[in-house]
């Protein structure tokens, strides 16, 4: 009987680890996609970029921070609005925010028309 419970526990742990791994990969893919769009942005996202970003929000399970970043990016017109900028800065200053989310938020908050050379370097690093 103890062996059966032990096997069930092992099975549960393995399933949990696999589940977390799948969602961690989704999160990294979200971040790479957002970084790619930000890297190539010129004044505002293209219609294709907006469609891609909306698909992330509706078909995946992004974090609240990623949803906020995407929302600000979709609405961007030369730069993000002041209210979006404040939300992005709050994300980047929150000690509990994952590093890649902090980076995306801080780069987007400072983006003006297109990414600077420094921002391009940071975004390129995120994509590898």
Can you walk through the features of this model?
There is one protein chain. It is built from six helices and no strands. Helix 1 packs antiparallel against helix 2. It is mostly helical and 128 residues long. The protein has one domain. The longest helix is centred in the N-terminal third of the chain and has 38 residues, at 2-39.
Key attributes of the depicted protein:
mainly alpha, 128 residues, 6 helices, 76% helix
State the gist of this model:
This protein has 128 residues and is an all-alpha fold. Helices cover 76% and strands 0% of the residues.
Structure annotation, total helices: 6
What count of domains describes the coordinates? 1
What overall form do the CA principal axes indicate? globular
Radius of gyration: 18 Å
- End-to-end Cα distance, whole Å, is 48 Å
The arrangement of helices and strands along the chain is HHHHHH
Class by alpha and beta content: mainly alpha
The whole-number mean of residue pLDDT values reads: 83
Largest sheet: none
Number of E strands = 0
Which stretches are poorly predicted, pLDDT < 50 over at least 5 residues? 9-26
Strand content: under 5%
Question: How is this fold's topology laid out?
Answer:
Elements: H1 2-39, H2 47-59, H3 64-75, H4 82-93, H5 99-110, H6 117-126
